[in-house]
Amino acid sequence: MIRQLSSSSRSSDDTAIEIDGLWKRYGLPSLAVFRKTWGRLRNEKLSHISENDRSWALRDLNAVIRRGETVGIVGRNGAGKSTLLKILAGVCSPTRGRVEVHGRVFPMIELNAGLNKELTGRENVRLLGAIMGLTRRDIQSRLPEIEDFTDLGEWFDRPVRTYSSGMLARLGFGVAVNVESDIILVDETFAVGDLKFQNKSLERMKQIQQVGATLILVSHSLDTLQFMARRGILMDNGRIVAEGSSLEAINAYEKLVFCVENEQMELRARSRISTEEVNIYSARLYTEDGQTINEVTSGRPFGIEVDLHLGRPLQLPMFSVGMHNDDGVLCKWNISLEDGLSVPGSCGRFLLRAWYPENNLGNGMYEIHFATRDGASFETLERIAGLLTFFVKGSEQSKGIVAGRCQWEMIPHKPASASSEDIHNHSSNSQRQAAYQ
After folding, report:
1. I need a surface site. Which of 103, 129, 264, 362 has the fewest CB within 10 A?
2. What gap in Å lies between CA 184 and CA 303, rounded to an integer?
């Protein structure tokens, strides 16, 4: 059951959304439901239907979101994030449970929904405004701001059927962020348009936060969620599996993905066909005392160990390790020959170890790519993308792919009447400080 309540009927504790025992199933009921219904008709007692049935899109969700909160929801594809937003928007109803929404909701789920391809951009703004319940006067007063925000120029008065997909998204987003609402639901709509428009959209969302609107954001852009949301929710398999700050939810999500990817990697390794040239048996991350780890702390050293077999003597074996973050950016790349490892004529089984005494990787998940080459001919004998996946944990404040502290200094500004010698000394000190950093 969904209850849409007006702003004036808010509860005393300023609750914006209350979710109690929410379940949702799509499609036809499962075979268990038919059996249960048939049993009731025959007055038979059957065991309870398994609620681990995969047909459930949402399973027993319970949450309270306060007025003015910005909540980021993360999870793998199919976790139930979009289904939850659709229920909150009133697009579909729950199979079981209760949802109470206090205030006016604007769903930014399908930005192109409601657009008439034969109408111009300006006419579509009037149409969408009317659908949202705005009066003609309200729509007319907002038109200049929407036209300026979308930055479509002369295209604003051309038929929407002539628009590119990016222009369509601009028009839909421009209407969405310029209609006053108590609660705004955002589903993967931050990446519309070019970089300039994305930055403008984020700034507009920050302004909406400042006026006290409640925002619920779903996105795979983890940096955006950490920037926008203070509170985070992790969903998996239709359930809420973790709650906390946005960073805590993101860390839990990356660990979840890490575990799933490692399981898939093990399955791929079992089905891997060994070659006569190189055979890799296993790989692991380890600490100074030799303990196997899956999580690395930023600033602390760690090592990578690969158990491998070289099928023939190599005149100059060469190994490389590359570390990529979850955006695919190469963060570290090391080659054994460049780091001083030279073992001519190597053949047989070895434990290859690469030790990193200075670990300056930032927060996030990383993937190790490994390759074996013949250094004499530069022939690639083995290349594995995703040999290992691991998580780097840093401080809550650390951002970016490189961690590490710097030294800060504030130098009083010299007045205009300062002597040339003082200015020269100040410049020299600044240059030394810059070189040190």
Report:
1. 264
2. 46
Beta bridge partners of 293: 285
In this prediction, residues 398-415 reach a mean pLDDT of: 71
pLDDT the model gives residue 98: 92
- 346 part of a folded domain: yes
Could you tell me if residue 261 is inside a domain? no
- Is the domain of 22 the same as that of 138? yes
CB neighbours of residue 389 within 10 Å? 22
Q: What angle do CA 184, 188, 194 make, to 5 degrees?
A: 110
Name the 3-class secondary structure at 364: strand
280/306 Cα distance (integer angstroms): 7
Same domain, 131 and 280: no
159: buried, middle or exposed (CB in 10 Å: 19+, 13-18, 0-12)? middle
Instruction: Please determine, for residue 100, whether its predicted confidence score (pLDDT) is greater than 70.
Output: yes
* Confidence at residue 177, expressed as pLDDT on a 0 to 100 scale: 77
In b/e form, how buried is each residue of 339-353, taking b as 16+ CB within 10 angstroms?
A: eeeeeeeeeeeeebe
Number of H helices, E strands in the chain: 9, 19
pLDDT at position 37 is 62
- The answer to whether 192 touches 205, Cβ cutoff 8 Å, is no
Please determine, for residue 121, whether its predicted confidence score (pLDDT) is greater than 50: yes
pLDDT tier, 41 (very low <50, low <70, confident <90, very high otherwise): low
Q: Which pLDDT tens digit goes with each residue over 217-251?
A: 998 878 788 888 989 999 999 999 999 998 888 88
In terms of residue numbers, what domain contains 139? 2-252
The Cα 415–Cα 423 span in angstroms is: 10
Q: Are residues 171 and 91 in the same domain?
A: yes
E strands within 76-172?
A: 96-102, 105-108
**Has residue 231 been placed in a domain?**
yes
Tell the residue number behind the tokens 């200075």, with chain if given.
358
Position 411 in a domain:
yes
pLDDT tens for each residue of 298-318: 888 999 999 988 888 888 888
Q: Specify burial of residue 296 (Cβ count, 10 A radius: 0-12, 13-18, 19+).
A: buried
Task: With 0.90 as the threshold, say if the pTM is over it.
Answer: no
Nearest CA-CA partner of 27 in 53, 5, 62, 66: 53
- Mark whether 244 and 148 lie in a shared domain: yes
For the chain, report the end-to-end CA distance as a whole number of angstroms.
60
Question: In 3D, which of 415, 333, 337, 338 has the Cα closest to residue 366?
Answer: 333
Same domain, 246 and 114: yes
